[in-house]
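pinned: reference chain
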Amino acid sequence: MSYNRNKSWYLVIGLMLLVFSGIMLFGFTQVAGAEERGSGHHQVMDSRHGHNHAYPARGQHFDRLPSGYRAVAYGRSRYYFHGGVWYRPYGRGFVVDAPPFGLIVPFLPLYYTSLWIGGIPYYYANDTYYTQTAGGYVVVEPPKGEVAQAPPATTGQLFIYPRNSQSKELQAKDRYECHSWAVGQIHYDPTQPAVNVPEDQTNQKRADYQRAMGACLDGRGYTVK
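pinned: its structure tokens
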């Protein structure tokens, strides 16, 4: 009788160990699968223009897109945008790629670096340059000229503080919409070079534009100085 009880106990222990081993193996399989889906993908640090932010290296393949992505159409192609990273369909998944010049995205990425080249503002992130256009921000070729990370003294830089803790995306959206409204009111766009316009007229238009921008942003919950 004692022998049979001991044998039954050993069988129970063996079964428990078998189940535990199966659980551990399943867990390791899930972790490995997650790494294959992209959690362990290589990232590169973009330090150009003092940007200093890491992104997935281009050419890497992902089974699925990150949550919160935006789909952007470009001709007959479709790209996907998230956090400054561009993806395009590839096989059954997606590959990290460079966006084509001329593609327009509604909002800037969360992290971007502002640059001034030839008196025109550009926005840089992940080896990609953007500038303002109708409908948002357009991907452009790397601009040529001396790069500055502060606007020219004649622009009368606006310092904008979000009183209502607006998100970065909302700030970018509000800036663009107020910019469009100010351009429509003043008929002057500081992102476009003035041609054959006297300097005093340009300065007056720029000042009027800044006042219009300030009024629009103040109405949306920003403190503007």
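why pinned: The longest strand covers residues 77-82. The chain has three domains: 1-40, 43-147, 154-224.
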